[in-house]
From TrEMBL:
It is an enzyme of class 6 (ligase). GO terms for biological process: pantothenate biosynthetic process. It holds the Pfam family Pantoate_ligase. One of its GO terms (cellular component) is cytosol. It catalyses: (R)-pantoate + beta-alanine + ATP = (R)-pantothenate + AMP + diphosphate + H(+). It comes from freshwater metagenome. Its EC number is 6.3.2.1. This is pantoate--beta-alanine ligase (AMP-forming). Pathway: Cofactor biosynthesis; (R)-pantothenate biosynthesis; (R)-pantothenate from (R)-pantoate and beta-alanine: step 1/1. One of its GO terms (molecular function) is ATP binding. Belongs to the pantothenate synthetase family. Keywords: ATP-binding, Ligase, Nucleotide-binding, Pantothenate biosynthesis. InterPro entries: Cyt_trans-like, Pantoate_ligase, Pantoate_ligase_C, Rossmann-like_a/b/a_fold. SUPFAM superfamilies: Nucleotidylyl transferase (SSF52374).
Length: 279
């Protein structure tokens, strides 16, 4: 597995592989890799010959200094996971190489970023779209793989590559969960025992709403409320909302393919999750 640290090296490596006829995939991450990331790598390997994983804790997308400072960093484990998963190359740029002192560009997607995570975390999405633009430009992948776990992020990034004519196929990989249903997240390690036990009520609420949908309920207020009510009292809910998967606009009647988005905070730790309505 090649480890590269500059955009130039990454670009040279990717172009040489593409010239050699290989299909290149990029899996962007912030490290602290878990089974969710591993499954993204696996999906990338199904679509491409040469899989690049990037690990960069992107300060620009943290609207909260403490969240950035306490974000888990497990580089040695991450490298071992990438090696054992058959990753072809790992891109681990330093902060200085990603954002030198002279850096002064910001990439913004409007519309889709106005609500939900965009409203609750000012500046978050411009941090995401700026770094992902840099990663896509440097690695010029044929495909890029992201998790459904961050559903709004995927919708925003799909719009970004569409609007900027970035020639990459965007692939969304399913959310990987703990056995009890909690969506895997690098931030879960911060949950204490009690919070961890209560956090499971988030996915229980989402699945409860899905079951109601599958039994014929279409009224979104009722479906939103069902998910909200299942949530443990200790969870401060930010939003529980069924939206259209493309526009992220509210719908009054739920359809197959709509998404129930959730965000809430427990013990100061923000957790997000979502579920796509299926028949
Ligand atoms: P992160 O390192 O948390 O920024 O996430 C990097 C990528 O992994 C993003 O595309 C996330 O959506 C994805 N991801 C995070 N958690 C999960 C999960 N539980 N299942 C699937 N993908 C995930």
């Amino acid at each position: 597995m090649r480890i590269v640290e500059t955009a130039r090296e990454l670009s040279d490596l990717s172009h040489s592989k593409k010239q050699g006829g290989l299909k290149v995939a990029l899996v962007p991450t912030m490290g602290a890799l878990h089974e969710g990331h591993r499954s993204l790598i696996h999906v990338a390997q199904q679509h491409a010959d040469f899989v690049i994983v990037s690990i960069f804790v992107n300060r620009l997308q943290f609207n909260n200094e403490e969240d950035f400072e306490t974000y888990p960093v497990t580089l040695d484990d991450d490298i071992a996971i990438c090696r054992s998963s058959g990753v072809s190359a790992l891109y681990m740029p330093s902060s200085k190489s990603m954002y030198p002192d002279s850096f002064g560009t910001s990439v913004e997607v409007s519309g889709l970023t106005a609500r939900f995570e965009g409203a609750s975390r000012p500046g978050h999405f411009s941090g995401v779209t700026t770094v992902v633009t840099k990663l896509l430009t440097a690695s010029a992948p044929d495909i890029a793989v992201f998790g459904q776990k961050d559903f709004q992020q995927f919708a925003v990034l799909r719009k970004l590559v569409d609007d900027l004519d970035i020639p990459v196929e965007m692939v969304m990989a399913p959310t990987i969960r703990e056995e009890d249903g909690l969506a895997l997240s690098s931030r879960n390690v911060r949950l204490n025992k009690d919070s961890r036990r209560r956090a499971v009520s988030i996915s229980q609420g989402l699945f409860h709403s899905l079951t109601l949908f599958q039994s014929g309920v279409r009224d979104t207020q009722e479906l939103n409320e069902a998910a909200r009510k299942s949530c443990a009292d200790e969870i401060a809910i930010d939003y529980v909302q069924i939206v259209d998967a493309q526009t992220l606009e509210n719908v009054s009647e739920a359809h197959v393919g709509d998404v129930l988005l959730f965000a809430g905070t427990i013990d100061g730790i923000r957790l997000i999750d979502n579920i796509i309505f299926t028949a």
